Amino acid sequence: EHRRQRESNPLTQLQNVMKLSDPHRLILLTSLILFSLSTIFTSGSFKLDEGDVGKLNPQYRPCIKVREAAKTCLDKTTSSDSSDGSTTIKRSCQEQMSTATKCVTAVKKAYQIINLSGCTKLIQDVALCQAEWCSSYGSSKESCSKHCDVKKADLRVCETKHVGHHVKKAGLDFDSSMLFE
Fold it and tell me: Where are the transmembrane segments (predicted)?
């Protein structure tokens, strides 16, 4: 019984761990580190309301004008010629529809880059800032603005840069003021 008490003593257990060989100590240390890291990412304190820290939804506002032009063209051609509408639509609205499609595709590509590598750190900074200063109990609009407005502005600059680059690369005009209206 005395031996059983001695084995349950934490100091004795620590001494037994110290008797392990170096490879066994490394395995034990590695497993403890992995276990502690796995608990961090499953902990409720790291979960945000949004559920995902690193993603922005595409904003198609830069495409509003070209999409409206294509829609107007389609409305005009379908109302003016009802006999062979498909041929008329193809001839007169093909360019506007192509431009609208190019714009939407360019914006989608831009947001893929933004979410995968372009602005990920800024997205995470804004999400964590909002979780800490804007959505916690007792937080005020003043503290939220004070701590997060600069981060949001930096994210908007990054977002505008990438969307503008891809829209211009598609051969279209880009009005940065339309992105965040």
Answer: 26-46
Question: For the segment 128-147, what is each residue's pLDDT rounded down to a tens digit?
Answer: 999 888 887 777 889 899 99
Q: In which domain, by residue range, is 116 found?
A: 51-178
Terminal C-alpha separation, the chain: 77
Q: What is the spatial distance between Cα 129 and Cα 136, in angstroms, rounded to a whole number? A: 10
Residue 72 has which token pair?
Answer: 């107007």
Q: Which of 131, 105, 157, 106 is nearest to 44 (CA)?
A: 131
Residues 41, 64: Cα–Cα separation, whole Å: 40
26 & 70 share domain: no
20, two tokens: 């392990």
pTM here is 0.63
| 108-113-115-120 Cα dihedral, nearest 10 degrees | -150
**Which residue shows structure tokens 């041929």?**
87
| pLDDT tens by residue, 153-165 | 999 999 999 999 9
Answer for the pair 107, 59: CB distance below 8 angstroms, yes or no. Answer: yes
